[in-house]
Task: inverse folding
């Protein structure tokens, strides 16, 4: 019989795979940016925010903060590098005003992260206390990121159309939240469990809306899509 630790490892590896592909989901956007050599109307905000989110989860998963969380570190470390790449592409193809905005945002995030690390390592001397502080911060950031689909879900309800709420992205977000929720449940970790439980719920609601309004969707309508992005990997790995 497979023991709990082995089960948790297997679930975590599956979670890493799902989260990895979620991190890669914006690639078509950056192909468009590269071909046009312009960011057009795309916004860097979700990618800049995810940089800090991934950095916080990497810190959370380190042995001296929350032991036995290697799989949280691996996927968020990869996610951090991917998001930095996205932000770099935005920086290259943006005007000077946008570059200034990106630079300021990254500097603020860096200062905030260093302050959190300093407080954690200087004043908190147990992994329990460190896990609590960083875990609560990670939950707050993840909940804020999960607020982003609310606009598109409201639009789906008002227009009775799911044309601009991609089914497979909604399914992937649901699967991602569910797998990391399971990971956190096997060896109880409330700081991974709570945000991913909310993520799974958000994804489930999107799927229900998709099933509800699929038949009323006018797929040939040329209406311009809203500039809204669903969260990609809200981890513990946008677990």
Result:
């Amino acid at each position: 019989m497979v023991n709990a630790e082995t089960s948790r490892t297997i679930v975590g590896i599956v979670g890493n795979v799902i989260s990895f592909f979620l991190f890669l989901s914006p690639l078509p956007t950056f192909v468009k940016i590269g071909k046009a050599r312009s960011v057009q109307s795309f916004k860097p905000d979700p990618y800049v925010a995810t940089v800090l989110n991934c950095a916080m989860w990497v810190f959370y998963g380190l042995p001296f903060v929350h032991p036995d969380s290697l799989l949280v570190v691996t996927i968020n470390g990869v996610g951090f590098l991917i998001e930095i790449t996205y932000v770099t592409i935005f920086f290259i193809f943006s005007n000077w005003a946008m570059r200034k905005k990106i630079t300021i945002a990254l500097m603020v995030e860096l200062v905030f992260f260093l302050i959190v690390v300093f407080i954690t390592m200087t004043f908190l001397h147990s992994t329990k206390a460190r896990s609590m502080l960083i875990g609560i911060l990670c939950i707050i950031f993840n909940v804020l990121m999960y607020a982003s689909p609310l606009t598109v879900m409201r639009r789906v309800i008002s227009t009775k159309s799911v044309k601009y709420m991609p089914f497979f992205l909604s399914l992937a977000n649901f699967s991602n939240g569910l797998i990391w929720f399971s990971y956190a449940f096997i060896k109880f970790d409330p700081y991974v469990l709570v945000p991913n439980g909310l993520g799974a719920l958000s994804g489930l609601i999107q799927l229900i809306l998709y099933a509800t309004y699929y038949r009323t969707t006018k797929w040939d309508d040329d209406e311009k899509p809203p500039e809204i992005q669903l969260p990609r990997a809200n981890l513990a790995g946008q677990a």
Q: What stands out?
A: The radius of gyration is 19 Å. Residues 4-213 form one domain. The chain has a mean pLDDT of 87.
